């Protein structure tokens, strides 16, 4: 019977009944006592391990409220071409050289796929997306695809355009764009939304052993950021098979909750060896940084070639979205819905409200409004006063990584200052969570807390000072509120007797350091049910 005492550090419980403590006693992976050091020591026996924190800070393990760990797994073998401060890709020219070197380093044979991901056109010297002419300079013998950081756009080379049979006679797929060479119908290699996904999903997947190995590495990466529960936010058949096989092999280091696409079969399950299906995912629009989020008012600077009234476009019709919401409500399925633009948010709220009204059903399903980036004040009022509790999950890192881009090009100052309105939501007693949409960004929870608290952009501007929140507010967004979003608040999210000993140890206390330095705090150790799964 293993037991552990954690003591001699700052213990932030995230439990309002006892916000801090001197010690924590854990037995068989379950927290049994939180309180005074002397009392915890009296519970020890000959098999008890004493974990001296040496002044470090102990918190509940972080819960990732929205990411795509199943996509992170294959991405572990792709070339990362992010801009600073995460990566080193500052221009399309640099990207070309990096991908050419990647082909040599990995000895990728002609005819095989070469995938890079993470580029940010807003931070490239050329201030544009790559196209087939750029990628042909990397290789005309490989299938080259470079995926945008948002995962909503990509560019492919001429060879891959031929493989996909995308030509001047190919229409845009519903909910997507095949961009054209100016003045013609010839595809230029840049793709948006469903067009991009058609290419990605046509790629041959590695064998299961290779995929499981990638999945293990992905979990290790999440654990290095203090995460003990992660999400796969769009669990297609192949990803569900990967997760189930990883669980069958007892290789789930952390808990993973998957969400099937609502347009497919949805089979909600309980945990089995660390994996379960928690509900369904619905995708309503694209990304604001890629100018594919569906807005009610035009973009501040419309994309090249678009009309001045360009607001982007929906993925589904109103009738289709209503049908998906009705399906979720009638079948007691929690629905996680991607909605960045305020037009997409209107579409969801209208559909979900009508589905509740028409069915006469208001089950407690805690529908989650993923990203909710440009939510308006009147929409926050609707969320706060809805018949059922709705939970926005905000991608607040936009304030830092794309804040300047939103102010100068995407939304303009007035709308940009209101993205991820954490404080306005708190003022309405709306419970929210915070995420990074990994692999869009690494699952760096300390960076996310930093963004929520400071809201500074890459250039140092403050974007929406009125929407700043306290470090504790932000911590709740990745602990107790995230557990609540998952219906797991009785087992996770706080250091409370009876809950799992999912814990993270930090080198500094985020409640006491200079708020501008929260991003520099290091994860020293991550613990899942009293077992160390990461140690710095």
Automatic annotation (TrEMBL):
UniProt-recorded name of the protein: Amidohydrolase 3 domain-containing protein
Residue ranges annotated for the Amidohydrolase domain, each copy included: 52-534
Recorded GO MF terms: hydrolase activity, acting on carbon-nitrogen (but not peptide) bonds
CDD domains (UniProt xref): YtcJ_like
Domain of life: Bacteria
């Amino acid at each position: 019977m293993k037991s552990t005492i954690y003591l001699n550090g700052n213990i932030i419980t995230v439990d309002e009944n006892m916000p801090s403590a001197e010690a924590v006693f854990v037995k068989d992976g379950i927290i049994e006592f939180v309180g005074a050091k002397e009392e915890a020591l009296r519970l020890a026996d000959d098999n008890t391990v004493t974990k001296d924190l040496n002044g470090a800070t102990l918190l509940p393990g972080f819960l990732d409220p929205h990411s795509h760990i199943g996509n992170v797994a294959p991405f572990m073998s792709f070339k990362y071409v992010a801009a600073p401060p995460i990566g080193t890709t500052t221009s399309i020219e640099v990207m070309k050289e990096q991908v050419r070197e990647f082909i040599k380093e990995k000895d990728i044979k002609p005819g095989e796929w070469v995938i890079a991901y993470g580029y940010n056109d807003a931070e490239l010297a050329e201030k544009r997306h790559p196209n087939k002419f750029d990628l042909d300079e990397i290789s005309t013998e490989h299938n080259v695809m470079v995926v945008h950081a948002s995962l909503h756009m990509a560019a492919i080379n001429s060879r891959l355009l031929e493989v996909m049979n995308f030509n001047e006679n190919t229409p845009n797929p519903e909910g997507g764009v095949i961009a054209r060479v100016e003045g013609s119908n010839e595809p230029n290699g840049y793709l948006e939304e469903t067009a991009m996904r058609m290419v990605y999903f046509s790629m041959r997947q590695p064998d299961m052993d290779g995929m499981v190995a990638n999945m293990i590495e992905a979990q290790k990466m999440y654990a290095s950021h203090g995460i003990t529960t992660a999400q796969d936010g769009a669990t297609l058949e192949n990803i569900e098979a990967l997760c189930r096989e990883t669980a069958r092999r007892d290789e789930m280091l952390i808990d993973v909750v998957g969400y099937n696409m609502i347009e497919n079969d949805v089979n909600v399950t309980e945990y089995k060896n660390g994996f379960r299906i928690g509900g369904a995912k619905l995708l309503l629009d694209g990304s604001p940084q890629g100018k594919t989020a569906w807005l009610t008012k035009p973009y501040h600077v419309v994309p090249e070639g678009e009309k001045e009234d360009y607001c982007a476009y929906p993925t589904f019709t109103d009738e289709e979205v209503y049908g998906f919401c009705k399906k979720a409500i009638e079948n007691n399925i929690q629905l996680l819905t991607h909605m960045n633009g305020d037009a997409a948010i209107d579409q969801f709220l209208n559909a979900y409200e009508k589905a509740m009204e028409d069915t006469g059903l208001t089950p407690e399903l805690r529908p989650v409004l993923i990203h909710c980036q440009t939510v308006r004040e009147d929409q926050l009022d609707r969320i706060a006063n809805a018949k059922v509790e709705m939970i926005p999950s905000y991608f607040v890192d936009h304030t830092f990584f794309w804040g300047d881009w939103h102010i100068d090009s995407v939304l303009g100052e007035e709308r940009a200052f209101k993205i991820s309105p954490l404080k306005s939501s708190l003022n309405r007693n709306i419970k929210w969570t915070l995420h990074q949409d990994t692999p869009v960004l690494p699952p760096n929870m300390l960076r996310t807390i930093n963004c929520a608290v400071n809201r500074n952009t890459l250039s140092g501007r403050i974007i929406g000072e009125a929407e700043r929140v306290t470090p504790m507010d932000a911590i709740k967004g990745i602990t107790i509120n995230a557990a609540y979003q998952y219906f797991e608040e009785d087992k996770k999210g706080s250091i409370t007797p009876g809950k799992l000993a999912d814990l993270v140890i930090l080198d500094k206390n985020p409640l006491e350091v200079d708020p501008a330095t929260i991003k520099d705090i290091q994860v020293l150790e991550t613990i899942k049910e009293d077992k160390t799964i990461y140690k710095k």
